[in-house]
Amino acid sequence: MKEIKDELKKLFIDTAHKIAELGLVRCSSGNLSLRVDHNTILITATGSWMERLIDNEVSICNLDGTVLNDIKPSVEFGFHAGIYKVRNDVNAVLHFQSPYATAVACSELSSEDFNIIPEVPYYIRSIAKVPFYPPGSEQLADAVTEKAAQNNMIIMQNHGLVTFANNIDLLIKRAVFFELACQILLIGGNRIRGLSKEQIKDMGV
User: Fold this and answer.
1) Which residue of 17, 38, 62, 162 is surrounded by the most CB atoms within 10 Å?
2) Residues 79/135, Cβ–Cβ less than 8 Å
3) pLDDT in tens, 18-44
């Protein structure tokens, strides 16, 4: 079995707990992965709860799907692996289902311009959407992987969200700020005015 440094596994578990604490997942919803090296990741085990994740609920896998520690990975392993394959700059992937963002994923608002607060264009930059496919399916993995090549946030229709980053802090910022933008949209409705292209450009984005 591949040896994983204790501090890396602790970081992974602490991050999962933080994600749950922030309300980005509920019970066994969502999944998290972290790159160990070019071909190896840590990923939450199938059915695990991030809020109480422990050592024996962390699967170690190669990107080809080989499980290195006999712990079955999340059913969404396919799009986690796909993202790492097409994005060498990505070191962490999160599938989350926070309330407002998931409400948007289940509505026509999923095609909205989300550049309504500076944090969206600054931290997230580009957002894509994929149709509904069954969780864990090859179709979903392929659709998410294709969009991940050019985007940093993906809305999965009637399912939830996927975001990814080169570090954990940015990963969490992207999820939290997207949830905030969706909350603002749902509360404010048609009264909300987005940032103009000029305003975004002035931010250096």
Assistant:
1) 162
2) no
3) 999 999 999 999 999 999 999 999 999
Structure tokens at 126: 């580009």
Domain ranges for the chain, please list them.
6-202
Distance CA 48, CA 86 (A): 26
pTM of the model: 0.95
Amino acid at 69: N
Per residue in 125-145, pLDDT (tens digit) is 999 999 999 999 999 999 999
Nearby residues of 36 by Cβ (< 8 Å), 6 or more positions away: 2, 4, 8, 42, 60
What residue type is 96 in one-letter code? Answer: F
The structure tokens listed for 151 are 């985007």
Q: Is the CATH number of domain 6-202 3.40.50.200? A: no
What's the token pair of residue 72?
A: 């079955």
